[in-house]
Amino acid sequence: MTATVPMTAALALGDDALVLSHRLGEWAGHAPVLEEEVALANIALDLLGQARVLLSMVGDEDDLAYLREERAFRNLQLVEQPNGDFAHTIARQLYFSTYQHLLYSELAASGGPFAPLAAKAVKEVAYHRDHAEQWTLRLGDGTDESHERMRRACQALWKFTGEPFQPVEGLDAGFSGLETAWLESVGDVLRRATLTLPEGARTGAWSAGAGRQGLHTEPFGRMLAEMQHLHRSHPGAAW
Amino acid sequence: MTTAAAHRTDPAGAYGEDTAGTAEFERAFDAAVAADERIEPRDWMPDAYRATLVRQIAQHAHSEIIGMQPEANWITRAPSLRRKAILMAKVQDEAGHGLYLYSAAETLGTGRDELLDKLHSGRQKYSSIFNYPTLTWADVGAIGWLVDGAAITNQVPLCRCSYGPYARAMVRICKEESFHQRQGYELLLALSNGTPEQHAMAQDAVDRWWWPSLMMFGPPDDESQHSAQSMAWKIKRRSNDELRQRFVDICVPQAESLGLTLPDPDLRWDEERGHYEFGAIDWTEFWEVLKGNGPCNEERITQRRRAHDEGAWVREAGAAYAVKHTGGTGGARA
């Protein structure tokens, strides 16, 4: 079975989960309320579990996580974006979890190499999506301040939302159908949150879209430096 | 549950006003404690018992949430994905422990907001151990093995505490703490058996965390401010020195198995007592850290306050949304 796992696709999915898990892990000890310490850690742990399975399909999980250079990572630029305020973290999660839930539902039904992982993960991701939706409603339709912060966060991350729907080699999914469903779902959540779909390009020269090709944004290098430092300081050591 | 002694439910406003009634309630309370029964939230209890419990449970809850900081300090640098998952799960557990404990305190009539306010303004304390820094990855192991080990030694007797909700919260917490202690030991074992640099990292961490861990049991029995009354009320079931001795006796052979040494030249087995003798604890350091002069007191409370203050708008949004959508006053935003 491992012989049939497409490397590019496994890295794309695995790196998305690994990198977003890391970002969520940065919240530990900083969350706005104790319940969110538990919730954000829970999502981070689910994603880390998925990343470990996916990376292990195509190599040693630690070699892949700790010894690749920035340009070899295949994650979306969306997931590497810094946490920002809680609204940015929620907007990022809404955009990503909606995409991941739609994609994994399709992969789970596909019978391809990722079907077993996707079938298990899709149950976890349904909760991540619900959590992001519930907070989007509360922040959008909460106070004037939270509305404005959520509006800004959705706008700031909007340019990263075209990238998830670029075809990935070895990933057998109907990306244009996914994109339609994504726009519909996110549009509906934002409307219920008294917000509107942001304006501006989602693809093209001035939007993001090259994470899958190994082109990342400036904060990502710093994130990797922190993540990989200790492992790389002790070459060959076991932990 | 059948009870040998008659628990008396406190009718609203009765205690403190009717002396004869209070005396009767007090006898029922004393009898329940003497019979090793649990006091429950609706039972009458002396004001001082209630206040002591709130103080102790709050301090414990605060310790859980402040204690997240030194370990969270290493989540983003964990050297393998397996270790990262374990550490994240552990820090998450601590947030969960905070939640159970604040809820236990709430059963005594004091809410989480009030307790957090007291923590942030310095009117309530957390365990001083968390005012020490985590300087290397091995510190994560040393905290698990020694700090969580000391916490378990302290907390296992609390599973039999006279106050029901606290005792029940402690049963669950102790199970999770026991897992934390084992992961710390296993982490140190991997380092101790690893490269010379890893071994040195583990030894250095144990050298720095050993004495502060012994201080976690609190001052010697004859100087302990709250101990006697807490023992009588069966909130506390073993003395500080007794628990400290038990901890040392457990740790010495474990250190040997780890291939690490404990930084105490006076440590030796006392055949006669059947216990390990250990050197004098530097209580000046303990009192200094307690007074706020430890290496990280300022940083810990500052980070806690910052997270709370920066999260205020999120909590307000949640509250405002709840009002709008439960038929409250505010209408939906146009």
- How would you name the CATH homologous superfamily of chain A? Ferritin, core subunit, four-helix bundle
Assembly state: heterodimer
Taken from the alpha-carbon principal axes, the silhouette of chain A is globular
The succession of helices and strands of chain A, N to C, reads HHHHHHHHH
Query: Any low-confidence stretches of chain A, pLDDT <50, length ≥5?
Result: none
The overall number of domains of chain A is 1
Can you give me a brief rundown of this structure?
Chain A: One of its GO terms (biological process) is phenylacetate catabolic process. With 239 residues, chain A is mostly helical. In chain A, 64% of the residues lie in helices and 0% in strands.
Describe the structure.
Chain A is an all-alpha fold and 239 residues long. Chain A has a single domain (7-233), classed as Ferritin, core subunit, four-helix bundle (Ferritin, Up-down Bundle). In chain A, 64% of the residues lie in helices and 0% in strands. Chain A has nine helices and no strands. Chain A has helices at residues 7-25, 34-58, 61-66, 77-80, 86-110, 115-140, 144-158, 175-192, 218-233. Chain B is mainly α and 334 residues long. In chain B, 62% of the residues lie in helices and 2% in strands. In chain B, strands 1-2 form a two-stranded antiparallel sheet. In chain B, β1 and β2 (275-277) form a beta hairpin. In chain B, α5 (138-155) packs antiparallel against α6, α5 packs parallel to α7 and α5 (138-155) runs antiparallel to α9 (240-258). The interface between A and B is large, with 50 and 52 residues.
